Structures are given as C-alpha cells and as structure tokens.
Amino acid sequence: MSLDRLMMRIVQKQNPTVLGLDPKLESIPEPLRNRAFGTYGETMEGAAAAILEFNKSLIDALCDIVPAVKPQCAYYEMYGWQGMKALSETVRYAQKKGMFVILDGKRNDIGTTMGAYAAAHLGKTRVGATECTAFGGDALTVNGYLGSDGINPLLDVCREEDKGIFVLVKTSNPSSGELQDREFTGGCTLMREMGGLCEEWGKQVPGRHGYSGVGAVVGATYPEQLAELRKELPHTFFLVPGYGAQGGGAKDVAGGFDKNGLGAVVNSSRAILYAYQKEGCDPKDFAAAARREAVRMRDAIISEIGAILLPL
Amino acid sequence: MSLDRLMMRIVQKQNPTVLGLDPKLESIPEPLRNRAFGTYGETMEGAAAAILEFNKSLIDALCDIVPAVKPQCAYYEMYGWQGMKALSETVRYAQKKGMFVILDGKRNDIGTTMGAYAAAHLGKTRVGATECTAFGGDALTVNGYLGSDGINPLLDVCREEDKGIFVLVKTSNPSSGELQDREFTGGCTLMREMGGLCEEWGKQVPGRHGYSGVGAVVGATYPEQLAELRKELPHTFFLVPGYGAQGGGAKDVAGGFDKNGLGAVVNSSRAILYAYQKEGCDPKDFAAAARREAVRMRDAIISEIGAILLPL
Question: How far is A127 from A118, CA to CA, in rounded Å?
C-alpha cells in the first residue's frame, strides 16, 4: 500500500533514478522505424510497433541497473488505441524484467470517475465475473486541483493492490510559479498547501520505511524549493522531473534526498533515450548509448548523496 | 479556432446541454451486455463492444435534439486499449451524426508533452509522411495547475484545427473548495485566478460570437459562484457539470447563462444514460427513456433562460 517496492529496488541497485519512456517517433533510430513501417506501413500500427520495439530494447539494456521506468501517457495516446496497446505491453514487459512502473498520466477527476482511472492505471477492472487488467502500473502521477474527492478513490486501490501515487506539487516548467508559487492569505503557497495535503492523504497509506504511498512531483529546476519541501514533507517521497534536458543537474537534486539517500527518484527521459544522437554513435547502438548515459547519471547523483540505506 | 461550432449547434437545437457518455458496464442494459459477452466472452473486447453499441444507440436516439456529447475518458481507459478503441469509434460516430464532441480527459502537462496530448485528443499525429487521427475530439477538458506552459501548446491546435478547450476552474464536487476557494493574498481565490487566466489565454483564440476557444468548467452545485464567474469572465464559455445525479437543477444553472441564453452548456450523464432504470421501463427501451429525460432537461433549462440567440 505504498512506494516500498520502489524504494527496495532503488536500494538494491543503489540508483535513485527512473527512465522516462517518452518515445518520439521521429527520434526513434531509423532502422527500427523502417522495420515497423515495412511491416505495417506509415500507420498508427506501424508507429506503435516501432515504439514498442524501442522500449523493449531500452528495458533490456537498463533493467539490471535502473530500478524503474516512467512511460508518459501522452506519447502513447497520440498514436491512438494502437499506442495505448503499446503502452500496456511496455508496462508488462518492464514488470517482467523486474522494473517498477510509474505511469505518468497526471490524471484527475472525482468519485467514481477517479475510481475508474484508479482501476485503469493501477488496479483491476471487473467484466462480468472476470477481473481484467487495463494498464496495470505500479504508481500513477495525479493532479490534486479537485481536492480530496479526487485522491481518496486512489487510496483504496493503493491499499488493496500495494500501489502508489505521485501528486503534482511543484512542477519543473518555467511557468509553474504562475499558480503554484502564489501565497494564500496566511503566507502558505499553493504548492506548500498541496504538499501538506500529500502528508495528510499519506496517513491513510503508510509505508514501512517512513514514506507513505502518496508521493509528490517536485521539479529539479527549482533546487531551493525542492530542499525546503524535503524538510517540510518528511513522509512524502518525491518524483523529480527536469534533470538533464530541462536543465537540472546532480547538485540541483541533492536537496531532494534525506540523510539515508532516500526520499526521491530522479527522472531523465530525452537525455537517456536519445543519447545515441548526442554521442553521434551508430543509431543501431542506441541501447548501449542509453546505458552509458544512465550510468553517468547514476554516478553523478550517487557522488552527491552517497550510499542509499533502507531504514527499518 | 474556438467554440463557435458548439454554439451554432446549441442555437440550432435550442438546447444548451451535453450528454455525458460515462458508460458503466454494469449499468448497460442486460440485453446489450449479453450480446457482447456472447460474441467476445467476459473480456475487455466484450466490454468495449457493449459500450460502443450502447453509445451508438444513444447517439442515434438523441442526435437530432442534443448538440453535443462528452465522453469521460476514464470509463474507456478502464477497459484498456480496447476501451480506447471504443472511445475513438464513439467520437467518429457522434461527429458523423452532426454532434460536437467534448473529450473529458482533464489532461495536463507541459511543452512538447502537452503538444502530444493536443495531437492525441484534438489534432493530428504525423507518422512518417502520413497524417493520422488518434481520437479527434472537437474540444478537450484540461487542468491548468501547471500554468501557461500547459495551455499554450493547446492553443496552437485550437487555432489550426478550429477546436476548443475547457479549463477546470470550479469543479462540482464537495471538496472542490479545499484549494479552489482559498484566497490568495490580495483577496482573489484560486478559482478566480484560474478564471482570469482563461480570459487571458482566450485572447489568443477569439471567437465570432463573443466567446473564445478557451472555456471553463464551473459546477452546477455552486450556483452563486457560477453566476459570479459568468459576470467576471465575459469571454469564457462554461461547461457545467453537476446537473441531475449530482444535485444541480435548472434554477441552479440559470446564472451560468448570459442575456442571450448563451455562455454555458450543461452536462448530464447518469440521469440520461440510465433513465430506463429510474423509469422502471423495459431495458430494451433504454434509448427512448434517455430521450424522454433529455427532453425534460432541455425544457427545464429553456424555461429558465428563454430562447437562445446567436449575437453577430
């Protein structure tokens, strides 16, 4: 009922990072695209086949050193139901290889509708007397603008299925402050209010190692706020986007971790997925290039935070 | 580049309502379910087939009197990619019958990722040299917590493809006030701030009849705030959930309309979809029961607001 399974993998691999699977068709190595288009034509099926092969190769190359993947739902939805099929197959494949899967869907709604999202992305769906799995992730990113009515239906599923959520608190983009940094009367900003709600919601899904099943998204691009929020939210695990291509570095994310080197998992997508372009190596070697970049990222962060310990 | 196409249909049909397509498998009339399960078994395919048939029957029964449908994405995602396929077929079918389709996905992200959602739900997706359509709605609900970086990518698509968006401002649920009603220093609440941003964003996608392509979601369950926001946001068209099953009535939504009877479209889902249960009629007659309830809703609202005029 928490993010304990993610933490266990982070400690085992001594690597607090997650590979963002944001497959842009036009950046997928040409040999893969040509193979898929050769079979299916320039169609949604063709795009989905190229994406799935790309993802599987990356998972194969990284699953022994990276604890988790984070598919960004938007890049699958844009290829229609065929893309969503590739998403569900990616989730299953990553889990089979031992990885923890964070679905980055930023879903939000209320009551039974939010319950439907919880079933879709974390739980099970009942069809007649049969239980089916739609996407079956281990955690889901969500948006808390609608308040507790939008979060409670998720907590039931987290408890029953041993899953977790990450609520948007302080996002990594330049305009995140337009609303999130605004102060309410009394002096608390919207992001700190949202963070406080995460601590409250988390009480319903406590974990074994100090962090609950309700995590928070806090961007690497605002290192001071990341460090402040780490102190203010002692039971809330952080998913940290904005590393690499968006500008955050290892020193910027260090403040997101606690004294045990736990408390955060840092995402990188483009810098790893398309490392072959930056390296200028043969596109066929994209997976090896991705692994080299993932190792560099791991080592850079570990050199800042030291060994990661799991408190009992 | 706006919601003009929706307004035109509302005026033509003299009906400012939208049918929420939230198909709950267990509430779909038994004959439809049995037929689908008979062909596909109790599988995601079976569920998707029952949902699609249910939706098509309702669209056939209502398309001459109701201007728009609003499929709630969660109820399709919970049936996996098969459910998403039923969603895309529902969108196409409703448009073929002349209805405006609002995809209720409450999507949110930033930059190129939000661009991917815009392509998925409103625009087109490029696959090699070919342009494909993923879900192809006419409008999309979105969550503005991430600020302008999350909205601007949508405005490009609204402009190019003549589409619209609805940003969550004041939602219909009991806990919506936890954050949305909180006051920032200076006295403006979060929901009013979000409403003000809608007016700003809307300037980039003006419409021909006074309302821009950036609408707002404002719940029927808070009639005073609905009326206040109507005055404060003269260029922002409202999508009003919370009518019927959630407790809002015709008098509650009246304040959402302007002097021409324009300015809002009111959603009802369960009360219409499952009218056959409330009426206690033969489940086979579910579509006729839905039509009767849709007529009652239309007449109740029109009796409050009068004839709807399109200003030039």
Answer: 16
| Burial of B302 from C-beta contacts in 10 A (0-12 / 13-18 / 19+) | middle
pLDDT digits (tens, 9 = 90+) for B256-265: 999 999 999 9
Record: contact B184-A180, CB cut-off 8 A: no
Contact A238, A253 (CB under 8 A): no
A22 contacts in chain B (CB < 8 Å): 113
Chain A residue with CA closest to B82: the answer is A81
Closest CA to A307 of A255, A251, A264, A261: A261
Q: What is the pLDDT of residues A137-169, one digit of tens each?
A: 999 999 999 999 999 999 999 999 999 999 999
Shortest Cα distance from A200 to chain B (angstroms)?
Answer: 13
- CB < 8 Å to A119, chain B: 78
Query: Positive or negative, the Cα torsion across B7, B9, B10, B12?
Result: positive
In this prediction the ipTM stands at: 0.97
Nearest by CB to B175, from A148, A177, A180: name it: A148
Amino acid at A277: Q
Search chain A and give the residue with CA nearest B86: A81
Q: pTM above 0.90?
A: yes
SS3 state at A100: strand
> How many residue pairs bridge chain A and chain B with CB atoms within 8 Å of each other?
238
Q: What is the DSSP string of B204-223?
A: TS--SSS--SEEEEE-TT-H
